[in-house]
Each structure stands twice: as C-alpha cells, then as structure tokens.
Design a protein that fits this description.
Blueprint (H helix, E strand, L loop, with lengths): L3 H6 L1 H4 L3 E9 L5 H11 L5 H13 L15 H6 L6 E6 L3 E7 L7 H8 L4 E7 L6 H12 L4 E7 L8 H18 L4 E5 L23 H7 L13 E2 L2 E3 L11 E5 L4 E3 L3 E5 L3 E10 L2 E3 L1 E3 L3 E6 L10 E4 L6 E11 L5 E2 L3 E6 L2 E15 L4 E4 L3 E2 L4 E13 L11 E5 L6 E7 L6 H9 L6
Parallel strand pairs: 1-3, 1-4, 4-5, 5-6
Antiparallel strand pairs: 2-3, 7-16, 8-9, 9-15, 10-14, 11-12, 11-16, 12-13, 12-15, 17-23, 17-25, 18-22, 19-20, 19-24, 20-21, 20-23, 24-25
Helix pairs in contact: 6-7, 7-8
C-alpha cells in the first residue's frame, strides 16, 4: 500500500516510462479480478483508503483475509455475485512501465465486453483454472484476441495451489492452448503457472514451483516489447470538424481538424480526399495553436489545403501516393455483441472512423466453430457472441484498410439505426493471420497499432 504523497513523488520518474495496454480474460471464477487485485496490491499500487475499504467489506462478509477481487469489481451487482460484469479499467505503474488494464468479464453473455477491452490492447492475459483446463470460453477468448490482432498473449494457469502445484498439469494445459492459439495466428504466447490468491508467480517468484524458471506475470508485463510506432504506416487523417472562423482576423481561414490515425503528414505533400478522390496539397498544419511543418500519429491537428474542396466530417485525407481504395462492398469478420440476431437483409448503420453510412447485410457466408476452428457455412444469422464472416453493401463508398494492416482504419461498427445499439464489431479483410504471416510479424514485434 502507498499513500497519495508517495505516488505523487514518483510521477516525474514514471513520465519517462513506456506504456502497456493489456486486458485480462477468462471463464467465470477463473480468478481474473483476484489476479488484478494481487497485481495492484503486491506492486504497491493501491492507495491506503482503497485497501481499508476492501478490508472493511471483506470483514463484513466474515472473510479472514482481504478479498483483493474487490479492488476491481466496482459495480454493486459484481460485488454481490462475486463476478465481473462491466469492463473495469485500472491505471497503475511500476518503476519500469506504466499500465492501462482492462479487466473483462468471464460470463459467455458478456464476451462482447472483451471485444471492447481488447480492441486497443497490446497484450491479453487469458486465465485458465488449472482444475478445468482449456474450455470453450477459453477458446472463444483466444479467438477474439487473434481476430483483434493482439500481438502478445499470456496464458496464466491459475489456482495451481489447488492441483498441488503439479508441473504435469500446467504443461498439458500450456501445450493444448499454445497449439490452439498458434493455429489462430497469435504471434507470441507465454504460459505462466500462478496462484492469484496465494500470490505465486504474480509479482514475486513462487517457492512452490521451483520447476518453473520463467518470468512472473509482472516481470513479463514490464519487459514484453511494445511497439507504438504508428508513423511507419501510410498516413490516414479522418476529418472530424471543418473550421471556418470567418472573422476579421481570419476571413479566409479553412481548416480540417482531426486526429492523425497513422503515419506522417508534411507541408507540401500531395494528398487525396476520399471518397471524392479530389486532390490537393497541404499548405499548412496547425498544432496547439502553432504552425508546424510535420505532424504524426496520434497527434490532433488542423490541416490547411491549397484548394477549396468540399470536405466534411467523415472524409479521409491521405497521401496521394498511398491512398486506400474506396469500396461499397465490405467483406469482414464480425464479433456479434447485441442480444438481437444479425440476419441477412438487415439494414444497419456502418461507422468507420468519423464516417457513418447506411448499409445492408448482403451475406453471412459462415460462422466460426470454436471447437475446431471450422467454418459453419450459411448460418443465416449471427446471435450474441457469435464470430462470423459478413458481406455488407454500403450506400456510400468507404476508404477502408484491411484490419491486418491497420487496427484503426480497418475496424468498424454495425449499429441498429432504430435505437443506436451496437450490433457487431467488424474487422475488414481476412479473419486470422496465416502462420507464415505470424512468423514475419512476430519478428517485427507484432502488428501495427
């Protein structure tokens, strides 16, 4: 435990450390919240008043030791039932790295929340109960992590204390999961035997598993290579807002504001505005009230172009030399997250970056069978938590990248036009990485972010 004063004293040191976004996932009662609580507690990232509140609630329940899962289970229903329902985000840091953690639910009906938590993650921690091994929900979480192109996956085999810390139990589970995840195209898998309740191999090495010589969970989180270099990708600039002050000071100012999704933009560069295809040249870049010659992802800037072009929110500005193709036929893999089914013929809204267009589901070619990764052809519809292929026809052209090339400009949402409910999270292009692609990407520290 640390006081507020102690944490403030470390802020200057932490500013220079790298950032890791990671998500936890697993089946019900596998111990995700306990693992997160143990990480926070043993890394001294829990404030005194937070720990006192947890101790008070635990004592009121008649528990002898503090229930560390309460550090993340914040909803009243979660605490009463002892489960995780919503995605709980936690921010903590060590001397080596800063972390943004998304603790996602384990129940099948809340798998959709894992999509939310893992969509921006650099790493996913998938928990398995050592007594139960790899189950269907484990395979589902591995499939979601692979579809979302999460470059690093940690298999945390929890509750090793309940199987006598047997190496053979851990080895069998690690072998089965690694084979399955590798077939999905996950580029890096690290298996760690732990006991979140007892603290074995979470922050401190376990004295009960001397047969294991790998890192603890925290050590791996602190040292796993993370690449946030968005500048190596082709530049993409979704327009959020058109700025025209029309004031005495700026009578002719016309700027296009937004956040650079990827790549680098420079003054003097030839660009194409999509989906119209009109071309122009960048004559100015304004960032934080000052003019600059160059800007890069993920900066928020305002672009000024040489020509007066009809540009509005939802348009995409990209270098002419590497502009994406536009299409009205979107082939993608989707994770269905709504309670109502998604059927062929459904009229939906498709939201891609800052652009939202009308669309219709033309085909659902297949649904993924998680047991053997086979494709069930022509299911007709997708229900909650299904993963399947879809073909969507949009009313207007979209400048869509393949998700394998860019997680930002290759993703989209399907939305119910009647009430605004999110129906599915989509990833354009191929479903999973091939093994050949996985090998190459792993050498380059994972996929583009």
């Amino acid at each position: 435990m640390t006081s507020t004063t102690d944490q403030v004293a470390h802020l200057a040191d932490l500013a220079a450390t790298t950032l890791l976004r990671f998500a936890t996932a697993g089946s019900v009662d596998d111990g995700k919240s306990t693992l997160v609580g143990r990480l926070l507690h043993d890394s001294k990232s829990v404030l005194t008043d937070q720990m006192e509140a947890v101790e008070a609630v635990s004592a009121a329940r008649g528990q002898e030791a503090p229930d560390l899962a309460l550090l993340t289970d914040g909803l009243r229903a979660e605490r009463e039932q002892g489960i995780t329902i919503d995605v709980a985000y936690r921010y903590f840091a060590t001397a080596r790295r800063r972390f943004i953690l998304a603790d996602t639910p384990g129940h099948v009906q809340y798998t959709r929340n894992m999509v939310t938590g893992a969509s921006t993650a650099d790493l996913a921690v998938v928990l398995v109960d050592a007594r139960n091994g790899v189950i269907e929900q484990t395979r589902r979480h591995a499939a979601v992590a692979a579809l979302l192109r999460v470059p690093h996956v940690v298999l945390a085999v929890n509750k090793m204390d309940l199987v006598g810390y047997e190496e053979s139990v851990f080895a069998a589970i690690a072998e089965e999961f690694t084979a399955y995840a590798s077939d999905l195209g996950v580029p890096e898998i690290t298996a760690i035997p732990i006991s979140a309740l007892a603290g074995d191999n979470v922050v401190e090495p376990s004295a009960n598993m001397d047969w294991y010589g790998g890192p603890t969970v925290l050590e791996h989180l602190e040292t796993v290579p993370v690449s946030h270099d968005l500048t190596a990708c082709p530049a993409r600039f979704p327009v959020q807002y058109v700025i025209r002050p029309q004031s005495a000071e700026h009578p002719d100012y016309r700027g296009y504001a937004g956040q650079i999704a990827s790549g680098v933009l420079r003054v003097g560069e030839a660009v194409t505005v999509l989906p119209s295809g009109r071309t122009s040249t960048i004559v100015g870049i304004d960032a934080l009230g000052e003019s600059v010659d160059i800007a890069w992802a993920p900066q928020s800037v305002t672009l000024r172009l040489a020509d007066d072009i009809d540009i509005s929110r939802g348009d995409l500005i990209a270098p002419s030399a590497s502009a994406p193709a536009v299409t009205q036929d979107v082939e993608a893999t989707v994770c269905h997250v709504a309670d109502q089914p998604l059927a062929v013929g459904a009229r939906v809204l498709l939201k891609h970056t800052t652009r939202t267009v009308k669309a219709i589901v033309k085909e659902i070619p297949s649904r993924l069978t998680l047991d053997d990764l086979s494709q069930h052809p022509d299911p007709g519809q997708l229900v909650a938590n299904d993963i399947g292929r879809v073909v969507v026809r949009t009313a207007e052209p979209l400048a869509l990248d393949a998700y394998a090339d860019s997680r930002r400009t290759g993703s989209f949402l399907l939305i119910d036009p009647a009430d605004g409910t999110t129906l599915a999270a989509g990833m354009a292009g191929e479903s999973f990485a091939s093994k050949a692609e996985t090998t190459v990407q792993a050498d380059e520290e994972g996929w583009d972010f």
